[in-house]
Design goal:
1 helix, about 200 residues, Porin
Length: about 200
């Protein structure tokens, strides 16, 4: 049997083993580890859109002025849609809020409020805003003897202050704002405190 081939493999094995041992013994690192790789980071810029919109849930507590001779106040809940054109971090547009207020089923007021609105969101996630417009209201009083229904149109205004993600063209924007709201009904002020929670987008 030809002994040349086995001898060649044996010598090659010994050479490779000796080289690896020498590298390990000298402390030379010939490979890459995960710790030695550079860390990759990404910065996502949120640019103000040209137009944005949002939907929100509206929860309120305060006076129900139309029925103040019968009750001192009540709770309310509803929904809101708003949107508008952007000038940098400022948005000018409109909003529509539909809300039901009162001790429901007894002294209840339904309101539809189309408002002109201005909103600003800072780079520190602070949202401030103003809105004003009419409040179209439908009032119902129901007891065991009779049901009364009335329709009124009242001036309405609100101020917003809260937390919001910055305006963005990509992805969603979340916000939570507190909103003192003022109406003038039957010659008397109607004051509410509302919390609005929602999200929206832009393009």
């Amino acid at each position: 049997m030809n002994k040349t081939l086995p001898t060649f493999f044996a010598l090659t094995f010994l050479f490779v083993g000796a080289t690896a041992f020498a590298q390990e013994d000298s402390g030379v690192d010939v490979g890459l580890t995960m710790d030695s790789l550079p860390e990759l980071t990404f910065d996502v810029e949120r640019f103000p859109p040209n137009f944005s919109y949002e939907f929100g849930m509206h929860f309120s507590l305060g006076t129900v002025t139309y029925w103040n001779e019968f009750i001192e106040g009540g709770i309310g809940f509803g929904a809101r849609f708003s949107g508008g054109k952007h000038l940098g971090n400022h948005r000018i547009g409109g909003m529509f809020t539909a809300v039901m207020e009162g001790p429901f089923g007894v002294y209840t007021s339904f309101a539809a409020e189309p408002h002109g609105a201005w909103d600003h969101v800072s780079d520190k996630n602070l949202q401030v805003g103003l809105s004003a417009g009419p409040a179209f209201m439908y009032h119902v009083r129901a007891d065991i003897t009779e049901v009364e229904r009335f329709v009124t149109v009242n001036p309405s205004a609100a101020v917003r202050l809260g937390w919001s993600q910055t305006w963005t063209k990509v992805g969603r924007r979340l916000y939570v704002v507190a909103e003192p709201k003022f109406r003038y009904i039957r010659g008397q002020p109607d004051v509410l405190g509302a919390l609005v929670v929602g999200s929206g987008g832009g393009n």
